[in-house]
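Exercise (ungraded).
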Amino acid sequence: MSTDEPTTDDVTADDAAVDDTASDVPDDEPILSVDDVSVHYEPGGIVTRALSDKKVRAVDGVSFDLYDNDIVVLVGESGCGKTTLGKTAIGLEKPTEGSVKYRGQDIWNSKENPRDADIEFTEIRRAMQIIHQDPANALNSSRRVKAILSDPLKKYRDELGPKEREDTIYRFLEFVDMMPPEDYAERYPHQLSGGEKQRVALGRALLMNPDVILADEAISALDVSLRVGMMDLILDLQDTFDTSYIFISHDLANARYLAKRAGGRIAIMYLGEIVEIGPPEEILQNPTHPYTKVLKWSTPTVDPDVAKQRIQEDPPVREVDVPDPEDPPSGCKFHTRCPEAREVCTTEEPERYETAGESTTACFRALETHEYWNSAELADADEDEYDAQESAGFGD
Amino acid sequence: MSEKTPKSDGGVTQESIFGTDEEVERRRTPPAERARRAFDFYVATPFRVAWTDWRTRIGGIGVLFYLLMGTVGVWLVPPPQINEGPYYLDPFVDWSMPLGTDNLGRGVFKTLVHSTPAMMKMALAGIVFTVGVAVLVGMIAGYKGGVVDTLLMTITDVFITLPGLPLIIVLAAIFSPDDPFIVGTIIAIDQWPRLARMLRSQVLALREEDFVEAARSIGLSTPTIVGQELVPKVAPFVLISAAGAAVGVIFQSVALYFIGVLPFSSLNWGVMMQLAYTQGNAVAAPGRAGHWLLFPLLAISGVSFSLILFSQGLDRVFNPRLLARHSQTVPEDEQEEAGGL
Amino acid sequence: MAIGQTNQSTADEETDDADEDIVMEVDDARVQFGMSRGQAWVLNDVSLDIRREEILAVVGESGSGKSMFAAALMDAVEDPGHLSGDVTYYPREEEGDDSPSADQIGSYDTVGDDAVDVLGMTDGELKNFRWEEVSMVFQGAMNSFNPTMKIKGHFHETIQAHNAVLEDRMEHVRDLFQALHLDPDRVMNSYPHELSGGMKQRALIALALVLEPEVLVMDEPTAALDLLMQRSIISMLRELRDEFDLTIVFITHDLPLVAGLSDRIGVMYAFEFIEVGDTRSLLKDAAHPYTRALLRSVPSIDSDIDAMQPIEGARPDPVNIPTGCSFHPRCPIADDRCEIEDPDLVSVDDDHSAACFYTDQARGELEYTLDHGATED
């Protein structure tokens, strides 16, 4: 899916960047600009790669902007590319095509041609950090909390002596309610609870005073009752440290919580593309893209009456399994599963269209006039008793 | 949660969050406390952890014994002289020659003691060379990947495929090394490639771990990441390999001395065994010179066994759970580790 | 309904349990093991009845004891844990030739047994009992396929291990695959790595059902799967229960997941059941403060964001379970009595009981909502 003029993005993002913070001058310039980024892999070993053309398009032509104090939550099923997109956005992976710009400076240009760069790569590297899903893995189990939290300080604040570093670390631990801090600083990760480990990982990121943090399923490994607490903490810290977040989640309910409380956006991803992006209430109450409807339908609700009714329903997709990312469907990638798909969807790729509200979506149905409305409906796939890994081959 | 302070223009600084300087003063740890903590962290706790394992204890005592033998022992025990005793004296008969004598009347015990330094030097050279090269090559290749990896691994593979023993024999024949350090280094040429490959495999797996990615994200340099994050993880493996390298060097040297490739030196366990076999016919007629063959053999086995036991026990020292339990600065475990979902 | 807890099971015990067809009964089950710090209890005198052909959800966070409960049902608690108490299994009565137990499928012989003491079985009996009467899908089990063996190899192995008739069983597997929307020819001839996570998990469910057990215990079967696959499997489970007369015990930490699937829910906290009841009754108006707090702390797709609140405090240490009511340190309405006395499960509604002295107060003071604006009290 190709990008349109930047104006489309600016319009949506501007409206969505709700300013909660007091003294901010509303920033029109995005901190992070992902511009038609694609990340392709060639699977297999040397021989396979040489012999075949196959590519996995983990991320395929994605664009979005991230502003000051903004949150974008990437939501999708596994294989949709959200993790790859996230890591590419913060410069941990290199895009095959397209560019990622930090405050206007192309990240990889800065790394490879340091002399031409306006912003140095070390500065960019400092400004963009990551928090991982599993806090147990994210901390080196052989090192103590103090050592782990000293890393960012030693690297970027070398004016601090060891005592000052220690104090800064203590203060951070107090700030996130890990008291007494002297005690916690001497612990090894295995002596911390899941939530505490995650707070240390957060601290490691925040002590660099980054502008953007990628939180990769950062709450999935926590106990259910702790998740809201961690999300609240992240949001509080966002205010204090003036950071933007890119959140990755497979859980639409949590995505909604975060995006709504922070006034951010949810971006729904499918097979490497953003199919719908916009404020959570809009997207979830009036989903335009059929895939968003599917995700919403699949998210469990705790209301037993609604749940009992829903369990009798069939999913609003024609096929349960996701197509093979190595061999994605032609035209609109969702057409093989889309209940609203028509002939034109198999040949033409939708671009990003505005909806009535602030969101944008990649579906012809958002447009009032399009060939779609005149196109013939697809003959439905056979009552699928069996799941196929590949797409059902309509017009492939 | 602490109060939120208003932001300054340049973004939030640590000071604006974390309080004023007066408060900072109150909190600093006195230097004496730091020194105590450092000692506990680097010396006392590892020692305590190591001591809990019987293998470290026994192995450690064994290694210590040999080290003492090679240093203090050499000083205390006079060097063997020809004809200081009757030829082929049996052991445990005359206490001035506790382990008997050899074909020229030299005390076996004295010869053993005075051969120890050479063995130790050889083993040390072997360890340093093997581990040093293998760690550098293997870990950097594994972490860096790409061209560097291919290059380093090609070199390693060349060495793996070179036939080890003949190579050493040839080198030994060419250089005729006297110095045990050089002998150890030459023998180690056979050992480092395999270890390098194994370390590379470990690093390949570790490289994908989240905490390594976090370190990269912070912007730490490659040597820092390898040394700080990866080495503690591979340290147990390296230690055991180091012990294995030492043992390997010792065994190989004995073999080489036994077959006569390495230059003759009277003060050498391997040479003792060779002479016992050739001159003393120790295998065919054990009654006469059997002790001359046996005691060096025991000495070699002893040092190898001690080294291996010691290194196996030492891998505990890198286990953070044990370090926490035995440390005096690390707080007590109040509750079980909370797992994920 | 009668669910009595430990020592003080009183008035509620004998009521209408006789009407319910119970398939398994757990009485005073406890699992403990020694640690350097003391005795750890990971199942604390748990009693529960499982009704035939129901779907019972056991909900709890990590460290609540739910996996241990599942293991106890099959006497699969591993060393150093030690399981004591009673676990009784009631085989289906012979009703005629249609009943599955009429033709013996594996080596386990239930004919003539009224009640089977699971914990008293010998190793041989246990080996047959498991998988033929009570079967289990473990957490993360989809990674436990043998990568060098095709899927059909796994089935053959299991069938042969239980001395069952291969052709009959493979016929049954076809039926199971159909219910699980799997293509038998394709899946059977694949290696595990060729299948997606969802397919592996479904194949595993079929493997657990190959010998037509009465009870299927599932520990977080959908944990690592995508939303849509998760949702599909939930539907499939319901169909499986209807078609094959199964009893399902579904263990999870995710309360919304089972809201539509389960008939009853049992909430575990600190290694015991603190609330058990009919799903609708429990979710609409939970009685125990923990359940209410849990419902308030878990955002669902339509919950009121501003009303969300985390639960303060930390979960209990198995070595130091709090005295009295195990939830009292974190409970907003706890008082002195709660610190001393441990409440039993008492009935609060029809088919709904909770272990709390102050359920009325809990219902009155701790609010939570299930959806936008519809505030429950």
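Further reading is listed at the end of the chapter. For now, observe: The interface with chain C takes residues 333-336, 338-341 of chain B (CB under 8 Å). Residues 1-26, 334-341 of chain B have pLDDT under 50 and may be disordered.
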